[in-house]
Each structure stands twice: as structure tokens, then as C-alpha cells.
Automatic annotation (TrEMBL):
GO terms for biological process: mannitol catabolic process. Residues 31-267 form the Mannitol dehydrogenase N-terminal domain. This is Tagaturonate reductase. InterPro entries: 6-PGluconate_DH-like_C_sf, 6PGD_dom2, Mannitol_DH_C, Mannitol_DH_N, NAD(P)-bd_dom_sf. Keywords: NAD, Oxidoreductase. NCBIfam families: PRK03643.1 (NF002969). It comes from Sphingobacterium sp. (strain 21). Its EC number is 1.1.1.58. GO terms for molecular function: mannitol-1-phosphate 5-dehydrogenase activity; tagaturonate reductase activity. Residues 288-482 form the Mannitol dehydrogenase C-terminal domain. It comes from the Bacteria.
Amino acid sequence: MERLNNKFLQKGTLPVEVEVPAANWKELPVKVIQFGTGVLLRGLPEYFIDKANRKQVFNGRIVVVKSTASGRTDSFEEQDGLYTLCVKGIENGKEIEEISINSSIKEVLTASENWGEILRYAEEPQLRVVISNTTEVGIMYDKDDKITLNPPHSYPAKLLAFLYKRFQYFGGDKEAGMVILPTELISDNGKKLKEIIVKLAEQHRLEAAFLHWLEDANYFCNTLVDRIVPGKLPFEEHQKMQERVGYQDDLMIMAEPFRLWAIEAKDPKVAEILSFSAVDDGMVITSDISKFKELKLRLLNGTHTFSCGLAVLAGCETVKAAMADPLLEGFIKKLLMEEIVPTVVSRGGIENEEAKLFAEKVLDRFRNQSLDHKWINITLNYTSKMEMRNVALIKGFYDAVGEAPEFMAMGFAAYILFMKAKRSIDNTYKGYTNEKGYYTINDEYAALFEGLWSKEPEQVVEAVLNDQRIWKQKLTLPGFQEKVLHYLRLLMDNKVKEVIKEAVNNKKYNQLN
């Protein structure tokens, strides 16, 4: 089987279902420098850029900087930067599949071997965009780093070296400034990156004119990314897909249909430079991305956190399996639509239709049969996730409705029962469910819960809800403690799914005994 590359493309033997690059893709200039080679970048920013190029909108390609010497770039070279993106899942309630050949990457350069060549790209006038995903620890200040190193160690120092070279080459021309888009999963990523860059510039005693240019000519944008990109297809699926499309592709990846890249920018110049943003509704440039953060944190992450303990206790392994189970799906839908959506809307800044539409997309994502998202993995750092994502929802529901939430209370009770920890001989903490046996608890408060569970259930619930070290406040809302205890006892005394059935099938909120 022939390998995917330009030579193979020119034969024109591809199945009609495969979207091919624009005819002029090889001639397009480099307009983006990207720090990082991870699959999220290939499945989201590169997806948008490639889509725009096929529509003759952006007409630019990417030079990718690989920060570490580990791993190879041979496949990118052998395939002329081409790779297949398979999008599989559910969108607007319907199964979809899209197969496209992405041609957005011009070349991949390794920082440790090609630093001089990377810096030469700073001289390209059409290169106006920086994208990065260097993991959460990538945007960190390293006081010992030097921009004169070949290459600098940290991403911020590498970027500063690149920007300083550009400033020097173009003589401080404002039109040579960059739009800088960190996609690292930290809050205010653009702001934090800029602060580190300025601090490093001052530490290196770079001239005041450069600091002014940094401030006036460049746009450090906060961004939020959201798309599940598992990466390489499972072996058998990969083989079948290669047979189907008729070529070998070592870089083939898959992604879910949902995509969101929200970019915070007030200056219209940013949208002008990022012209590729106009070709897909999944890319949004707005003066404030806090709304998108709230939707993701509460409706997607919050639903996960309220549901994961219950699903594990019910013996359900994956999110997609839960959505195929009428009872668990019923719990998730009622939790999301009847409690979380109204709460988010009541907190202000988000319209009801916006929240409902996002929630429907969350349910579509949960139903995706191509994703093996395990509930036990979602329970990692369960307590801190419950505090960060869901305490505001519990309080917000009470403020909006005037009573304690039913399904949130059940999810919270399941969390407390899930955290019934016993320390094992290997110093890990284990919980137990009648459905599946033992499971591992990865939570910094596991030892605390082991001690609490020597008491009676009502004492456990009272102690947990009153622990201000965990929640930074007391969760003793009227009626909430009683509902949590009610469900905790039911979950301890009955089959988990019978408890879910009672709540889900009850049209009105359950009346406590």
C-alpha cells in the first residue's frame, strides 16, 4: 500500500468521500508558527486552518516547532506534512463521519536541532500568528533561562527570542506584530504568557523600544479550546480505514465532531489576521470568553463530576455505556436539563437557549460510540473537581429555585459513597461496589474519608458538608443535607440502579420520608 504524500495525491485515485487539499496547497506561504506537535493542535487549530485553505480564505500554512528531541519527525517528512483527520460521532442527534486530508503543515522543525532555521521564520512578513500547546506547565517562568541559548529551554523564552528577532529584523514596525494564541488549558493563558514574556524581557534588559513594541504591536489573546482528540485510531480501525481510503498514513488521527476555539480579543485587527476564523461556527472571536468557560465548566465538566461516582457504583465503565442505559441516561439528562441549565442561566450572562443548545451538544458528545471515556478516570481528584465545578451550582440552584436540588444531591451522595476508602497494603486507597468489586480512589482527601467512614452515615454527611477546608464554605443549605443523607442511605441499602429509577421516573422531585 502506498504512503500518503504529494506524489500519491497527484494520482487522483482517492475515494470521493475523502476531502482533499486545495489545488494550490504546496504553494501557500507560511503564516503561522506553532509550538507543539500534540494531537489537540492537529485536531483543532490545524483543522480550522486547513478548512479555510480549502475555501481559499486564509491561504497559509504552518511551521511546527517540536520542543523535545524525543520522538521522530520522519513521518511528517515522508508524508509531506499530510495527514488524515477522521471525525466521528454525533452532531445534532445524527451519526456523522468526515474524512479529510489535512495539508496545513509546511514542515516540522526540532528546536534542539533547527533553532537557527526556526528564528529565520521571524523574518517572514506574512507570518503573523503564533499558536502553542506546550501543556499546562509550558507557560512557566524560568528565571535561569536565556534567550541567547541554542535553543532556550522554556517555551516563553523561545517565544521571546523569536519576537525579539522579529522586532530587530523589521525595525520595530507595528505591522510586524503577532497574534499570539496559547491553547494551554490554564485560565487567562494569554495574559499569563504575556506577563512572563515581559518579565523575561526586563530580566534580559532588552531596550524600552522593544517593550513598547511588545505591548503596542502584539496581541496576546486568552483562549479556550474544547474538542476531544483521542489521536491515533485503535489498530484494527486504523487498518480498516487505510484499506478504505487506499493509502498508508502513520499520522492518521480521529476527533469528535464538537469543536470550540474561543479567542478573547477586543481589537478588530485580530479577526482580520485570523481570517480562518470565519469558515466555521466552532471558532469564535469575542471581547470576553468567560461565557464559554462557564458553559464548559458547568454543563460539561459539572455533569461529568456529578455523574461519575454514581456510574462507577452502578457498574458502568464508560460514558457511552451510560448513555446506552435508559436509567443512567435519564439521570444525566434530568441533572443537566432540569437542574444545571436553569442554574447557569439564573447566574446571569447566558441566555436560556444558549445553555440548552450547549447542553444538547454535551449529550451528543456523551453518546459518541468512538470514544472510550472511562468513568473511573473522571473520578481522578474527585473532591477538588466537585469543589471547583459544582459547589456554585448547588448554591445557585437553591438561590434560583428556593429548594435543594434533587439530582445534584444524588450525585453528591454517590460521591460520598464512592469515597468510602480503605487503605490497602500497597498504600493505595480502594472503594468497593457490589456491581464490579474494588476500584482505586485517586483523591488527596482519601485518608480523610477513610477516617470519616468509621462513623454513621448521618455523621459522615454532616462532617463532609461542614468541612470548610474542602469547600471553602459550609454546604449546609436548607434541605440539602437531608436529601444527600436520604440518597446515601438508599444507595447503601439498595441496588444503585433501583435508586436511580425511583428518582428518574418521579415526575415531581422526590418527597423525603
